[in-house]
Amino acid sequence: MTAFARPAVMGVLNVTPDSFSDGGEYLDPAAALAHAARMAAEGADLVDVGGESTRPGASPVGEDEELRRVMPVVEALGRDGAIPVSIDTSKAAVARAATGAGARFVNDVTALRGDPALAAVVAESGAEVCLVHMRGEPRTMQDDPRYDDVVADVKGFLEERLAFAVAEGIPAERVWLDPGIGFGKTLDHNLELLRRLGEIVALGRPVLVGASRKRFIGTLTGRAEQERAAGTIAANVLAFERGAHMFRVHDVAATRDALLVASATLG
Ligand code: HH2
User: Which CATH fold would you assign to the domain 8-266?
Assistant: First the structure.
């Protein structure tokens, strides 16, 4: 999966009642599967199935409830095989069940800090893993975030988490890094991270960016969540130009087209 020849698009599939832009839309497995099929048809390279919102202020979800939400969808997508599946979770039990049902990618916003058993599950499953920078936890992460130098801090964190993953038996070749846009960051922090993304890319692992519809785009444009596709595309095209490899988005078709044109233009 790390060998995408062109920028890769990860379609967001939140099987949650409370996600910030699509909460409640895909709680019904049939609706979730229809949305996955739509994103695949629009050119998504994989779908990221999540059962716990990580929006600022979100409450944690128990393991049984998370499994109940995501597994019917992951199992059906795994059986179908039409599109690779990523599981957006911090819990070892959820990652174990999802990789057992065919998920090839574990997207962990805690960067293997949330559940001490998750690293071993990733190592044994052969799945790829994305390590995301987050300051604090979703409930409190937007309470006055401060950094000496946000890019240096995020880079140092990701370097340390990459070393941890490798020490736990996950080959570096299977690790993706993500600066965690919106996870304990102000508008200026997000813009600085995107502007200087090359410093994160320099760590030598492929970089995933999750800017889709996030609050900083609403702050800049004055638009509601569902109207932030153009702002999202601007952020993603600039991130691509600075070396990012994969883009986690709600608006797959428009993002794919923009990245194809950007990629052809840059050569
Ligand atoms: N952002 C969200 C969730 N998962 N994963 C990665 N790797 N990077 C991100 O930036 C990222 C992520 C939050 O967005 P969303 O899934 O749309 O909302 P919610 O957390 O409310 O479900």
Answer: TIM Barrel (3.20.20)
